[in-house]
Amino acid sequence: MSRDDLLADLQTEVSARPVVPPTPPPAPRVDRGTGPATPALDLSWTPLRWSLPSVGGARHGVGVSLRFGPVAVTLAVR
Questions:
Q1: Is residue 9 part of a domain?
Q2: Contacting residues for 59 by C-beta, under 8 A, at least 6 apart
């Protein structure tokens, strides 16, 4: 086969394929977490589990957690 024969075969293959329009990009995703921060106060009481007084970071978000005896108070910004 010559180079011209290969080129002719390639052109017939390309021209035989249907033209598929490109798909539009997906719509931007709305993230509901970008709004203003929401302060949260969490108070829990566990009568069967006592702890020494301690101060630490909040589990969810940015904030402070205070634990003493059966009571835990957490103030966080989510």
A1: no
A2: 65, 74, 76
The total number of structural domains that make up the chain: 1
Summarised one tens digit per residue, pLDDT across range 23-53 is: 888 877 766 656 677 778 888 888 887 878 9
Question: Whole-angstrom Cα distance, residue 70 to residue 68?
Answer: 6
Q: pLDDT tens, 11-26?
A: 888 777 777 788 888 8
Asked if 6 contacts 31 with a C-beta cutoff of 8 angstroms, the reply is no
Catalogue the long-range contacts made by 7-13 (C-beta closer than 8 Å, 24 or more residues apart): none
At 58 the three-state DSSP class reads coil
Q: Does residue 42 fall inside a structural domain?
A: yes
- The residue segments making up the domain with residue 55 are 38-78
Report yes or no: 27 and 57 within 8 Å, Cβ to Cβ.
no
